[in-house]
Amino acid sequence: MKKIGIDAGGTLTKIAYEENGRIHVKTYPNEQLKELIQWLQMTAPNVRLYVTGGKRRELEAAPHLNITPANEFETLVKGTRFLLKQEKEKTEQSFVLVSIGTGTCIFYVTPTSYERSLGSGVGGGTWMGLGKLVSGEDSFHQLVKRAKKGDHAKSDLLVRDIYAPNHPPIEGSLTAANFGKAHVNETADTSDHLAALIQLIG
Question: Given this model, what pLDDT does residue 19 score?
Answer without folding.
Answer: 87
